[in-house]
Amino acid sequence: MNETLSYAASFLAMIIGFIEPFNKKMTVVLIFSFVANLLVGISYILVGGVSGALVCLVAGIQLLINFIFTVREKKIPVWLIFAYSAAYCIVNISTFVNWYDIFSLCAALGFVFSMAQSNPKYYRLLLITNMGSWLIYDIFAHAYGNMIMHISSVITIVVAIYVRDMRCKNKQVNEERI
Q: What is the separation of C-alpha 32 from the centre of its chain, rounded to a whole number of angstroms?
């Protein structure tokens, strides 16, 4: 039963993951990412991935704080980025059980730096690092629903980078030549 619910939460997170990277506004990206992290965290809890679940909880808190800064059009202070990193390290060290839990920490730190971006373009580029680390964690934690979700997220992010960042840039260059 837990595994079925885990797959359901991962599936919902995957649907959100298909939409989220294409958003132009960072506030919308943050909202979608918050909901997806909540669902992924639930999925990890259901398959016993405590480290991954707690990292998702900290990510949710980070996203809410970043949302407040973004809505107020304030830059995220450097000290807060260090505080996020420290929080992820504390969570990971306190829940460290398996050698592969280090990948949840790598994913978390990649997430810190991706979420510190005010430009969705740079967020998307850094998010690939986050997803790659989660993929490795998913394999060893036997979190197959999340693994499928993370694979689809990487593909979606690559497509979003092409559509939103590369193709739009090429259009601007061509228009400037005319």
A: 10
Contact 108, 59 (CB under 8 A): yes
The answer to whether the CB of 47 falls within 8 A of the CB of 2 is: yes
- DSSP secondary structure letters along 103-157: HHHHHHHHHHHHHT-SSHHHHHHHHHHHHHHHHHHHHHHT-HHHHHHHHHHHHHH
Model pTM score: 0.74
Q: 154-163, pLDDT tens digit by residue? A: 898 888 888 8
Separation between Cα atoms, residue 74 and residue 66, nearest integer Å:
9
Which residue has 């506030």 as its token pair? Answer: 27
Tokens 């934690």: give the residue: 141
